[in-house]
From TrEMBL:
Superkingdom per UniProt: Bacteria
Transcription regulation keyword on record: no
Pfam families: GFO_IDH_MocA, GFO_IDH_MocA_C3
The protein's name in its UniProt record: Gfo/Idh/MocA family oxidoreductase
């Protein structure tokens, strides 16, 4: 089988997170990073030199380049929708950091534009493609805890203002614990348990202002624009019910993701891409957790871009797709709306199941003939609907 040509990639946003992406992408034979752009051109120049990227410059210059087929949008949340839409309208495939957008209308505009342009759009988080969560998915699919009944997720901590040198955007609209951390949990929940049908939430804001704790702006006060603690009840379309907490107000740091079935409990790793899955079977209090080590090649941030690039060459849909990201955004906004109104909110959108990755899937192996690549079972040109689930995205 012949090796397909790598997909030319352009990066928009040369901040801290770009290091994580570039470490993965420059080691992946499926992609070739051709350009990087940033409002701070010097910062783009630094990353270009560090990673051997042949071009750095402005966003406009990057979007005009014929050798850039896929744009990776690593900007702040408020800029995600605008820049992803510009990339799509320029005829580029696109990947963006989470959240997809800050409102449903902007997200639908991206999906519609992608369908019109015939391009693919993927969206973070791509932790669902990590070997840890993929192992959890396989155990769940194999019935190791029986039929899932309930799920409990917790993300608690004091917030990033103590350590982040520029935390202001993390407490602005489009961030906070719900939009900054929630997508990791919600995307995994949907992958493992299916689409969400209804949420009921309560929000709380412990402080109206916070203080930058490190860096050149240390000691600076800044406003808190969003709730910093959310308590959420979730009903899934398949019947599972869940309880979740997302909080930047707790001195206690705690992360937990447990699915309870009718014959056991599954503890899903949530700290990153790897880590063991915990299994507890039966109702005997003396039983101990069994750790099942993650199976598969190591994967890190940026593997979603690699999967998207393989979808581009193989005419399939990406797993961490804009379709999935739209449903997660719909749920995030519904949680905000429920907390504001004090009543449950039904979710209008849905999401297709995310096909599992085989343990042999490796972002660092050479891509072979794309016609032989494993299919995600989602045709690229299927029909559209009012819930904006056209498979082109």
């Amino acid at each position: 089988m012949t090796q397909a040509a790598p997909v030319g990639v352009g990066i928009i946003g040369a901040g801290n997170i770009s290091d994580e992406y570039l470490t993965t992408l420059t080691a992946a034979p499926d992609v070739s990073v051709r350009a990087i752009a940033d409002l701070d051109v010097e910062r783009a120049a630094t990353q270009a030199e560090r990673y051997g990227i042949p071009f750095h410059g402005s966003v406009d210059e990057l979007l005009e380049r014929d050798d850039v087929e896929l744009v990776v949008n690593l900007t702040i949340p408020a800029a995600h929708a605008e820049l992803t839409l510009r990339a799509v309208r320029a005829g580029k495939h696109a990947w963006a950091e989470k959240p997809m957008a800050l409102d449903r209308a902007s997200a639908r505009e991206i999906l519609d534009a992608a369908r019109t342009a015939g391009v693919l759009v993927g969206n973070a988080p791509d932790t669902i493609l990590g070997e840890g969560i993929q192992t959890s998915a396989a155990l769940l699919r194999d019935g190791r805890i029986g039929e899932p009944q309930t799920v409990l997720t917790l993300m608690q901590g004091p917030g990033p203002d103590a350590w982040h040198p520029r935390p202001q955007f993390l407490f602005a609209r489009g961030a906070g614990p719900l939009f900054d951390i929630g997508p990791y949990y919600l995307t995994t929940l949907v992958q493992l348990l299916g689409p969400i049908a209804e949420v009921s939430a309560f929000g709380h804001r412990a402080r109206q202002e916070r203080v930058v704790g490190s860096g050149p702006d240390a000691g600076t006060l800044f406003p808190v624009e969003v709730d910093t603690h959310l308590s959420v009840l979730t009903r899934f379309a398949g019947g599972v019910v869940g309880t979740s907490i997302y909080s930047f107000d707790s001195p206690q740091r705690r992360q937990l993701f447990e699915i309870t079935g009718d014959s056991g409990v599954l503890r899903v790793p949530v700290s990153g891409f790897d880590g063991p899955t915990g299994l507890l079977n039966g109702d005997d209090r003396e039983k101990e957790w069994t750790d099942v080590e993650a199976e598969g090649a190591p994967r890190t941030r940026g593997v979603g871009v690699v999967d998207l690039a393989r979808a581009v060459r193989g005419s399939t849909a990406p797993r961490a797709s804009a379709r999935l990201a739209y449903h997660v955004l719909d749920v995030l906004l519904a949680i905000e709306e429920s907390a504001a109104a004090g009543e449950p909110v039904r979710i209008a959108s849905s999401a297709a199941s995310v096909p599992d990755l085989k343990p042999t899937w490796n972002p660092r192996t050479v891509m072979t003939d794309p016609t032989q690549r494993e299919s995600t079972s989602e045709p690229v040109a299927s029909g559209t609907g009012d819930d904006h689930e056209g498979a082109a995205a």
